[in-house]
Amino acid sequence: MTDFFHGIGKIAYEGPDSTNPLAFRHYDPNALVLGKRMEDHLRFAGAYWHSLAYEGLDPFGGRTFQRPWYGDGMDRAFVKADVAFELFSKLGLPYFCFHDADVRPEGKTLVDTVTNLNRVAEVFAQKMEATGIRLLWGTANLFSHRRYMAGAATNPDPEVFAYAAASIKAMMDVTHRLGGENYVLWGGREGYETLLNTDLGQELDQMGRMLSMVVEYKHKIGFKGTILVEPKPQEPTKHQYDYDVATCYGFLKRYGLENEVKLNIEVGHAFLAGHSFEHELALAAALGVLGSIDMNRNDPQCGWDTDHFPNDPQSVALAYREILKAGGFTTGGTNFDAKIRRQSIDPADLFHGHILGMDTCARGLKAAAAMIEEGSLDAALADRYAGWQAPEAQAMLKGERSLDQIADRVLAAERDPEPRSGRQEYLEGLVNRFV
After folding, report:
1. Residues near 346 by Cβ (< 8 Å), separated by ≥ 6?
2. Which terminus of the chain is less hemmed in, N or C, by CB atoms within 10 Å?
3. Coil, helix or strand at residue 228
4. Residue 236, preceding bond cis, omega within 30 degrees?
5. What is the architecture of the domain spanning 12-374?
6. One Pfam match, by short name (predicted)?
């Protein structure tokens, strides 16, 4: 254990009336929500990259944080691991997530790099056994290094494609060895800047082949976790192939992977795609590909993915309502893909950010559960579509009526359907009762 977080003990639940900034006011891991422990509903995970690897950079300025583990070398990587597990343990996070590049230095060759990764994984295994913290998912960073400036799976150079494949294999092996419950592929640069130098069909086929190989390798090594793809529309690439839930599902269907791969959906990415987070969750659930989530928020005044910690219980409540309606998480969970601001330079700020996020999610979960238990929203929805339960409506839906048969019936009736109010303001008022 390090002394980086000097004077900060384990964060405890103290209830809504607490004024202690280093305590939970709403997140009580053992509280029952719909008959299930809050911790088991939310399945919180700490993001290694934003909490430990982020240096306070922004597009116009460099490092603002001073951390004892910054720099190359395995000794720094081991210090970072010590601090990471101290942070996760004191917050009571049951899970963590990481990219390979977050935890190990780059070697002179890929052999050296993989060796470094495996050495850190051995340390992780010891710390996981000692603390009980588990791995929600692992992933390979295939976007930061200059070799990936034109993409990884979609790169015009087949040798870069092959290097990416070898990197994914190494990280899948580590994820499997550490008992990871999912493996994520985020195509950070799987897209294009201009069609003048892009064969879009070629690149999609490359991306489809890479994902197919990942699925094949999952079964070869006996990995029982879920393979996840993370939608994102843009930034840094002008247009990315994994734009949103609908685009990803179409991609999976095209390459026959819709029953093998689910989605890891992020709040900020939904925002960049012009959607609400609950829209993306509801669509993924309807298509059978809802897997896991990255919880954060964007600043509406900024045009990029700012990854703030969540602070709006109402928007979070609407999101968890969709997750609860879909049956809740199985292998997925709530990963805090969120970072503290570059002026928040004190070690304690890492705790304040996570406490904010965890309490916001807890409030949202409780509100979502209360909406479901009270039932008014579901009743209003059922009433709106009640007409479809009538025999003639069911016959239309099941294909038992042709277009001309339907037209003949409508013409014979000689009456127009009377519109009904959508009652949006009433329903929004209902939501306000619970948040």
Report:
1. none
2. N
3. strand
4. yes
5. Alpha-Beta Barrel (3.20)
6. AP_endonuc_2
Yes or no: say if 409 and 391 are a contact pair by the CB < 8 Å rule. no
Query: Are the C-beta atoms of residues 148 and 164 closer than 8 Å to each other?
Result: yes
Is the separation of the CB atoms in 144 and 101 below 8 Å? Answer: yes
Q: How distant is the alpha carbon of residue 165 from its chain centre?
A: 22
Nearest to 118 by CA among 132, 133, 138, 90: 138
Would you list which residues are annotated within the binding site? Answer: 230, 266, 269, 294, 305, 307, 337
Residues 171, 214: contact at Cβ < 8 Å?
Answer: no
Model's pTM, two decimal places? Answer: 0.96
Q: Does the annotation mark 102 as catalytic? A: yes
- How far is Cα 23 from Cα 11, in angstroms, rounded to an integer? 5
pLDDT digit string (tens) for 101-131?
999 999 999 999 999 999 999 999 999 999 9
Q: How far apart are the first and last CA of the chain?
A: 39
Catalytic entry in 102, 173, 242, 359: 102
| 99 in catalytic set | yes
Dihedral over alpha carbons 261, 265, 269, 271 (to 10 degrees): 130
What is the rounded CA–CA span in Å between residue 267 and residue 275? 9
Structure tokens at 142: 């295939």
- The active-site residue, picked from 26, 41, 50, 99, is 99
Query: DSSP state, 259?
Result: T
Do 371 and 434 meet the contact criterion of CB atoms below 8 Å apart?
A: yes
Supply the angle between the helices 347-374 and 376-384 in degrees, to the nearest 10: 60
Residues 6+ apart with CB under 8 A from 8: 22, 90, 347, 348, 351
Please, where in the chain does CATH 3.20.20.150 lie? 12-374
CA distances from 230 to 64, 82, 120, 148 (A): 29, 29, 25, 18
Do 363 and 313 touch, CB atoms closer than 8 A?
Answer: yes
Model pLDDT for residues 210-221, shown as the tens digit of each residue? 999 999 999 999
Contacts of 236 (CB under 8 A, 6+ apart): 143, 188, 189
Amino acid at 167: S
Question: Residues within the annotated binding site for Mg(2+)?
Answer: 230, 266, 269, 294, 305, 307, 337
Residue with tokens 């006011």: 25
